[in-house]
Amino acid sequence: MDLVFKDKSISGVLLVVPSEEKFFIEEMSNFHFPLSRSLKLKEVMGYDRHRVVSEETTATDLVVFGMRRLFDENLLFKDSFDALIVVSQSPDFLMPSNSSVIQGKLDLPEDMLCLDLIQGCAGFLIGLFQAFMLLEQPSIKRVVLANTDVLSKKVSKMDRNSYPLIGDAASITIVENGPKGKIFANVKMDGRGGDALSIPAGGFKLPSTLETAKMVDMGDGNIRSLDNLKMDGSAVFNFVQTHVPPMIDQLFQSAGISDKDVDHYLFHQPNKFMLDKLAEKMNVDKKKMPSNVVGVYGNSSGVTIPAALVSNLANELKTGRANVCFAGFGAGLTWASMYLRVGMLDFCQEISYEKETN
Amino acid sequence: MEDYLNELARLLEVGDVKPEDELRKFELWDSLTVLALLAFIDEKYSVLVSSLDMADVETASDLYKLIEFRNLS
User: Fold this and answer.
1) Which of A117, A276, A285, B40 is most exposed by smallest CB count within 10 Å?
2) pLDDT single digits (tens) A161-183
């Protein structure tokens, strides 16, 4: 469906990444794959480094760390926002929700709406939709949108389908009213394809047990358990190639624009291969579509679009404005896109998460 | 079919691939080769082949027949 939002904007983006970098070259021996093939995989997919959290760090830790930094630097104040949206598939607990945990840890005011959204790789778009809708309320003047995932904890280190690309990260995006202007977007979903990206065990349907934790060879040399994240790489590839280009066509049509109007395509970053194939299929100049996030930070689900923005456009968007096309696609299945003007950001930077003592 | 067999040979890093060759017998027939091949088929023939389709494919020509069938239908 097509969506239109009026007079809303992004005023700041902070990316929080774990300080520890892991290197594909060092992890290759975990995969049951000849060395030369691993190197080929690295080249084709654009794998190199990725950031993963240590055992004790959770999704809310990353957000709390980032928000404290914003408070410390007077870029955000505890009483200057009215809603906290947390988009994540990495809940600290089944109850209470991550947004409530964060509110408690940061000692935020009671007069606030805390809301969790369970979304994967389209989570930045779905979060923005929700933030824009909340801003229609007179009492809600500013929304903090936090995207955070630590899914490396759910990926088997012996699964070369998923481990080389996984990354952990959080982003904090400030969303508010004004200046005047329309924002065009669209979204589609298909729950029938949900198996392509899933974590089979650990929920109410199939609780984690010793049985679900058993590591099994999946027949292709990848070893994982039912507790682990499972990705059907070719199904995801087909889904993206068939669904994303028509979605962008539809977005262009509803916004009345063409490729010439778009300065940057900031798409979800599954791997370099998939983005290159998308750019080719859409006839888009690859220079306008960064694909470097997976090789620098890893694929951090809903955080990859803010990561692409901060790591490629920080200077441009702090001092000027650009017409940007966002697209997210993944678990659900969900696919969504947005065309908007972004810029004159109060902040647009990356910080490294360090474990806090308190 | 020639373009298809040439691309297959390039991805499998062998001299040539014959229509009757069984794909699983090639040393480099793995998930990476399959993905690269699916991307080539999509680009060249505008046909998307899924991993489910691949389960029934044994020889190089089996896959080509599938592409032709999808391309026509």
Assistant:
1) A285
2) 889 899 999 999 999 998 999 99
| Residue A218 near chain B (CB below 8 Å) | no
Instruction: Tell me: pLDDT of A2 over 80.
Output: yes
Find out whether A125 and A336 touch, Cβ atoms under 8 Å.
yes
Residue spans of the domains in chain A: they are 1-358
Residue A109 near residue A100 (C-beta atoms within 8 A): no
What is the assigned CATH class of domain A1-358? alpha beta
Which of B23, B32, B38, B53 best tests the A interface by mutation, with the highest count of A CBs <10 A?
B32
Q: What is the pTM assigned to this prediction?
A: 0.92
When CB atoms are compared, the residue of B28, B43, B51 closest to A234 is: B51
CB pairs < 8 Å spanning A and B: 43
B31, B14 in Cβ contact below 8 A? Answer: no
Nearest residue of A to residue B34, measured between CA atoms: A234
Least confident of A31-45, A190-204, B17-31: A31-45
Structural domain for B25, as ranges: 2-72
Interchain pair B35, A242: CB under 8 A: no
Our count of domains for chain B comes to 1
User: Are the beta carbons of A98 and A116 closer than 8 angstroms?
Assistant: yes
